[in-house]
Amino acid sequence: MRSVVIGGGHLAYFAVTALREIDPKGRIVVIEFTSEKVEMIKKTFPYAEAVLSSIEGVEEYISGNRFLIDVLVSATDSDALNLRYAKHSIRNNVPIVIAILNNPLNEPIFVRENVKYVVNPYKTITSKIKEIVGKFEVNVIYEFSKIDGGIYAIKIEDAKTLRKVRSFILKNDAPFFVLSADKRIRAGSVEDVQIGDVVYVSSHGREIRGLLKKMGGLES
Amino acid sequence: MTPEEYFAVRVALAALSIALAIFLGSKLGDLIMRNLSRFGRSFASKLAEIVKYFLVVLGAVIAFSILSLDVMVLTGISIGIFIVVLISMRDVFSNYAGEIYLRIRRPFDEGDFIKIGRISGRVVSINSQDVELMSVKGERVIIPNQFFLKYPVINKSSATTTSIELKVVLNEVSPERAEEIVMEALGEIRPELFEDPKIVSINKRDGKTEVDLLLSTANQRKMKWLIGRLLKELHDRGVEVEIE
């Protein structure tokens, strides 16, 4: 698999490492704008090709290799550049285009511009803090990239929530497991869910939003 | 004025009213397209079409009232017109039905890579009458929506990779040696593939060794280039080879 990563910062570091893990025999090209960083990339990732390019030159590189690039990751330190390169790659029909955000508030702009795969590295901050503090009604644990859905944690604090969650699981045949108050993980019948448990349920986004609405306008 | 002359005048007036309705419909349609296109071309063209047909029907009704035909004749003509309109616009209606299907069922979205019949490409836009694709060769392909009601659609975006089966025929080489050579050549193109290539089978036929391969890539447009590279690698190893 030929992957192209644009940028040589810390976002690109994680992208290159993941791509190497996915396909150890694949070809990875990292494009950077400064010669110092190119030298550093060569040392950090000896298996990758480091290419020095101007900001404008990246688009030429993408156009010239559009028939060969399988995955393009736009991971510079600038969201404006990431958006520009992602849009250019989509126009050139690169099959998998991933943009990594620097500022999570820019996510809607990428979505509006038809960039299908946007990675928001800050997304886990909210769910981690909620989980650690242990005070939440609903916690978005993970959202799938290819479908509208994910894994959600729902804290059963009262009988009303318990009834709604049970009904939701039964109605949607949603896969779930339970983390009980005594920190045990169990999977079983929906009847075993109790007040004080945290239910981890996997569901389509549309369905979970419906449940959240029923539970009284909780965050989605 | 004799009754025949009176009838001829009425026929002329009826024809005039239909002609006027068609003329007005066309002019009004152009006017709507010019002034309402800022709200979307598709919306403006739909509205222009509706106004045009409404005026034509209105013209026809006026024409019939001028002719003062009896109810039976009028009903017969109305049914006839209805059938003619239905037949002549069947493609338009089935394209609208196709649009409704695409909007409700959503078999694909803009940006997805799809295959319908023998055509494949990336979806650029989904419109009221057609879907615009960009083919792998970069050609703009317009597919009427009714096709999506008739033919199966493969949405390739849901699958990350495209796999192709290849038959490599090696002359005057034993199956063991053929496997060795093909694996070496595949090793050279492996970095460009999505996953390890697979040798599906090796058969000896008429003195030739046939090797069936499975290659996977995320970029479908790379296949031709990959086959070329594979051929070159095999030739470099001094093997006479054909690829099917």
Lay out the secondary structure:
The complex is a heterodimer of chains A (220) and B (244).
Chain A: E1 2-6, H1 10-22, E2 27-32, H2 35-44, E3 49-52, H3 57-64, E4 71-74, H4 79-91, E5 96-100, H5 107-112, E6 117-119, H6 123-133, E7 138-143, E8 149-155, H7 159-172, E9 176-179, E10 185-186, E11 198-204, H8 205-214
Parallel strand pairs in A: 1-2, 1-4, 2-3, 4-5, 5-6
Antiparallel strand pairs in A: 7-8, 8-11, 9-10, 9-11
Chain B: H1 3-36, H2 41-67, H3 71-88, H4 90-105, E1 113-116, E2 119-126, E3 130-135, E4 140-144, H5 147-150, E5 153-155, E6 162-171, H6 175-189, E7 198-205, E8 208-217, H7 223-236, E9 241-243
Antiparallel strand pairs in B: 1-2, 1-5, 2-3, 3-4, 6-8, 6-9, 7-8
Concise summary:
The complex is a heterodimer of chains A (220) and B (244). By secondary structure, chain A is α/β, with parallel strands linked by helices. Chain A has 8 helices and 11 strands.
